[in-house]
Amino acid sequence: MADHTGRSTPKKRELVRLESTIEADPMKVVPLMGSEGESFRQGCYAGKTIAVFTSGGDAQGMNAAVRAVVRMGIYVGCKVYYINEGYQGMVDGNINEATWNSASGIVERGGTVIGSARCMEFREREGRKRAALNLVQRGISNLVVIGGDGSLTGANEFRLEWSSLLDDLLGDGKITPEQKEACINLNVVGMVGSIDNDFCGTDMTIGADSALHRIMEAVDAISTTAHSHQRTFVLEVMGRHCGYLALVAAISSEAEYVFIPEWPPLTTWPDQLCRKLQRTREAGQRLNIVLVAEGAIDCEGTPISAEDVKRVITENLHQDTRITVLGHVQRGGKASAFDRILGCRMGAEAVIALMEATPSTPACVISLDGNLAVRVPLMECVEKTKAVQKAMNEKDFDMAQRLRGK
Questions:
Q1: How far, in Å, CA of 374 to CA of 364, rounded?
Q2: How far apart are CA 349 and CA 351, in angstroms?
Q3: What is the pTM of this model?
Q4: What is the pLDDT of residues 259-303, one digit of tens each?
Q5: What phi and psi, each to the nearest 5 degrees, are found at residue 203?
Q6: Measuring CA to CA, which of 28, 134, 206, 383 is 20 to 30 A from 399?
């Protein structure tokens, strides 16, 4: 079956996928099949307008996503705008039209070339009215937001408030009835840019793979000097609420021990750690690597820092122990091939999701399910992500672990 664009619509495949997903795991966020593998005529959505912005912490691969939104948007006939400096740029009107060439040479770059900034003004209704005015004046009624759960939640709340904001602007005489009608509905599609891989509803977030590469490069480099001097190194990595980076890096580097927030050790962890390290040294190993997520805690919720771990090792085993805090180096550098491709796939899918949206379509997030780019309900994912932290606050770590991958 074909639609007005001349492409096939895989409705039967989508329904099969939804049914099988529900039966397999009722806790899982149910995805809608994306449009990957389908073809689109050039200019098939001519006359539409899209804006893209990045918000919150930066992550490698964001630029690949921005590039894909711009080029896919232009290909299908849309006018595409950059909103520079995140929500602050939306409030200030720091918005400029994108061209095909303006998105060249950015796919490999880390960070975000269009900037990201905190914006207290957007938290107030007057600030959101200014943002709405800036969008309406440019005919923008389709938004792509790339950021974390806070940025995505803000965009959804903006969408829900959109109608009343337009009413206020019309009443104030700042827009015409024609302008209001042209932008009567605001469609929002998100992509998760986060090196922590901490968002429920997607297998991978943009930037997580690149950050993991930075960590592995550091561990591999440290291992050589640790071996030479028979040292123990404690590495602190990012992950205030999510232990993905620490856990995967620990497995990949053959680390002796790892501390993550979702899987906390017993309060007797100092004894367990020392026994493990002592056994490895007695077996002839010349070095030990311990990874600590910055949000690590024990089962009682007591924080565990890299300094705590070092003190336990030096006081009990008298090993030469050093700490390395990787910090923001994990966010820096060029994006990995995986993140470049992920950003490209998600960005292209985001454009089509916006073009297919109706006034009743809820805001969605483009996610990775297996090896498929799919669409999942934005707020359902946000609520499940918040539920992970709630479970950890309540010390229900089994539930936190179950929710984390959902």
A1: 10
A2: 5
A3: 0.90
A4: 999 999 999 999 999 999 999 999 999 999 999 999 999 999 999
A5: -70, -35
A6: 206
